[in-house]
Amino acid sequence: MGQEFFLIDCGEGAQMQLLAYKQKAVRIRHIFISHLHGDHYFGLAGLLSSLHLNGRTEDLRLYGPPGLSEILITQFKYSDTRLQYRLHFRELAQVREPILETDQLTVETIPLNHRIQCTGFLFREKTGKRRINKQTLPPNLSHHQLRRLKEGKDLYDAAENLIHTNEQLTLPPRAPRSYAYCSDTGYFENMVEQISGVDLLYHESTFLDDQRERATETFHSTAKQAAAIAKLASVGKLILGHYSSRYRDLSPFLEEAKTVFENTVLSIEGEDIVLEE
Amino acid sequence: MGQEFFLIDCGEGAQMQLLAYKQKAVRIRHIFISHLHGDHYFGLAGLLSSLHLNGRTEDLRLYGPPGLSEILITQFKYSDTRLQYRLHFRELAQVREPILETDQLTVETIPLNHRIQCTGFLFREKTGKRRINKQTLPPNLSHHQLRRLKEGKDLYDAAENLIHTNEQLTLPPRAPRSYAYCSDTGYFENMVEQISGVDLLYHESTFLDDQRERATETFHSTAKQAAAIAKLASVGKLILGHYSSRYRDLSPFLEEAKTVFENTVLSIEGEDIVLEE
Fold first, then answer.
1. Quick one: closest CA in B to A44, which residue?
2. Among the three residues A69, A92, A115, which one is the final residue of a domain in this structure?
3. Which residue in B15, B38, B46 is closest to A79 by CB distance?
4. Do A151 and A55 fall within a single domain?
5. Are the beta carbons of A78 and B38 separated by less than 8 Å?
6. Residue B40: its chain A contacts at CB < 8 A?
7. For residue B234, what are the domain limits?
8. What amino acid positions of A are annotated as catalytic residues?
9. Whether B75 and A116 lie within 8 Å, measured CB to CB
10. CB nearest A12 (choices: B12, B36, B78)
11. DSSP string for residues in B230-248
């Protein structure tokens, strides 16, 4: 988001995939781990070690469940590694709580329903500044004047002894965007109120509907169940993912979900999903 | 070796690479970990977890330094994983010791010289059975007769009331093969006596000779130093590996080593090196 890069979960090989997709791991300043099943964090120790070996000195903030710091500390102890950068660890609980606030956004946890402690993450952009309306703007304004306009101030035109109101020269801030990441979880309506109206929802869909019982047993969801949550929460767009390796062809996931919630896409390794400005 | 598959060290992504190179991880029954730097074991928890999820029930034997079992137990504790198969852990020390003996081979550790505890592994085939000499063999022998011949027994031909001596019908067993894996280590002549005369030596060569001081500081070796060990130990063939990522072109490793020890090859990701029967 803007110049900030966030990493959510970090399975084995994540550092190689970041490299393969030309994403610079060094730009990441916040890493969020949903739960301690290996497919969600076995790449973390490798990524943190490589950042260390590549000379990172900037602080890194890590958010994850109890146990994660113990696992990392044990690994670093036996490899006799003293990180060259500060790694701040925020231990998460199985409750809804705000965990990060920057100038641009807030992040809070979303309690999910999995076999072990597991939380999703809800990113909410803050309301930005007013936007300059190029159609009504007088020429030759200074940077100072433009900044004041974005902050909602009026403009005083000394030459003509005239006040332009802010409403004349600016447009309202664009609507703040929001993204909810919900994996892994069984079908869990408790999350609906919290994620209501988000622009983008990633919801796991490990199984198709023929495996609904297996989904319940293993605290996973079907594509239809993910779509039902998207519909109940009136989200803008649904992204499916976390498909069981038993399925070769992913198109039935999209078909099943679309019968319940039309604006659905499949997440595919290496593909970007852009939230429009 | 024969029907036995051994895995030596297990860096991040090892399970994906086994899959990519069509090696069945399920066939591995012994895993050896030299030391606890991440590039040698960060793929282990993922491999062990995948074997579990894929339904393995056969025992697996793991050999590694102190700390490895604690790391794995901590990870399995927080993921609430109870392996479906028995994982036997043999804790290694910084000494030379026999750690495995089967019908076919023995394995012992090779103390190396690295920043943390680190041992290599020496595989020695046992002397096999005598081999049938097809050129002198009478026709139509039973499986029982053939097995007795391989065990060194003579053959009694009842029809002709004649004894064929074992020497007439068999060839001596082929020479037992041996393989030493030595990584990671600084230049360390102490290992020479132990690995003397092995058919195949894998010796790390992290650096070229221009970085000899850096090699010493970091307890790694140069290609020339690896070749010097190969020469002192009169091994059959030397395999180089563990190249620093600073080098794009690996051919200078081979050139430098060959100035000291001719029968050298580069290990390349995904390539097989076969010890002739």
1. B42
2. A92
3. B38
4. no
5. no
6. none
7. 94-128+175-271
8. 39
9. no
10. B12
11. HHHTT-SEEEEE---TT-S
Provide the ipTM: 0.89
Same domain? For B117 and B166 the reply is no
DSSP calls for B7-67: EE---TTHHHHHHHTT--GGGEEEEE----SGGGTTTHHHHHHHHHHTT--S-EEEEE-TT
If asked whether residues B14 and B107 sit together in one domain, one would say no
Last residue of a domain, one of A114, A149, A171: A171
Same domain as A263, residue A163:
no
Contacts of A55 in chain B (CB under 8 A): none
The pTM assigned to this predicted structure is 0.91
Same domain, yes or no: A180 and A238: yes
CATH of the domain at A30: 3.60.15.10
Give the angle subtended at the CA of B51 by the CAs of B46 and B54, to the nearest 5°: 120
Question: What domain count does chain A have?
Answer: 3
Angle at which helix A68-78 crosses helix A44-53, to 10 degrees, equals 50
pLDDT tens for chain A, 277 residues long, are 888 999 999 999 999 999 999 999 999 999 999 999 999 999 999 999 999 999 999 999 999 999 999 999 999 999 999 999 999 999 999 999 999 999 999 999 999 999 999 999 999 999 988 899 989 888 888 899 899 998 889 988 888 888 989 999 999 998 899 999 999 999 999 999 999 999 999 999 999 999 999 999 999 999 999 999 999 999 999 999 999 999 999 999 999 999 999 999 999 999 999 987 6
B89 phi-psi bin (left φ>0, alpha ψ -120 to 50, beta other):
beta
